[in-house]
Amino acid sequence: MRLDLSPRARRSAVLSALSPVIAFAGAVLVGGVAVALLGVAPGAAFMTYFVTPLSEVWSLQEVALKAAPLALIATGLAFCFRANLWNIGAEGQFVVGGLAGGWIGVATQGAEGFTLWILPAMLAAGTLAGLAYAMIPAILKVRLGVSEILTSLMLVYVAELLLDYMARGPLRDPAGFNFPQSVPFDPAARLPYLMEGDTLHAGVLVALLAVVVATVVLARTLFGFEVRVVGAAPRAARFAGFSDARLTLAAFAISGAAAGLAGIVEVAGRIGQLQPTISPGYGFTAIIVAFLGRLSPPGILVAAGVIALTTIGGEAAQIDLKLPLDLTRAFQGLLLAFVLGADVLARYRIRLVPGGPRRTA
To answer: Where would one find the signal peptide in this protein (predicted)?
Structure first.
């Protein structure tokens, strides 16, 4: 006997809508068992992970600040993933964007006179740097047929090492007591805070604007239609005259630009200077966010909030309940596995078929 998957004649809209909720409930259930095995009451862990971060203003701001770069990167990745393209290197594009825009912040430190151009120039430089870095795997795929998965992933390490070198070398603060970091950015090179005395900055609005623009592009433009058709029916797209090469370059450009913009938003917002490490893994976590949000910009925004909530809650659980922070990462990966599994069950039926394993020629 073997298990076989057969496509459903008609996909249930209710099941499709409820599958993320079911997946989240399943992940919480398995996570509760893991927490109990570690000697912590699941109810207390649930309160710390999901309720406590929503009960105070400062923690709500932290959730928003962590959700913003995740939503921005994942929204760009959605264009690639919808077109069956696999940009796994958003982390590197994030780092390069932060480095390029941050370099302007360092170079203009102490500038006098008209300084209103500095922040827009930093945002533009970060966006263009992320776009250019994403073009490397895209061009290699289009021209030479090289796997974009491998090239985009390997370029992450190049970007991280480049940032580490620049922060410890050419861009290091000469008066910084040999700490590997640049000079702090001037106020003109920082994103403004939304409210005086709070930590919430304008980068959150940038992420919200990107989600709105991406929603309109995917739903209301010919390019969005092309992305959907190529992803759902590649042969039909070719018959319609859509170019695979052009779409590959465009999708990678969008995803790289979004990741680069997220990088400089993080540097000019929360961090305020260049350091050897500017990302806790946003580029990789955004892949989970994109699929958890069903590759839909509004869904991605909700998913980014959920992942950010578990991250803040995980930090609190590490302090209050002595739970390892790796448990949070394991839960996020488990959540992705449950979401993908729920999608499969929504599309296919599981059947028990007589016979041994299916053989392929």
So the answer is: none
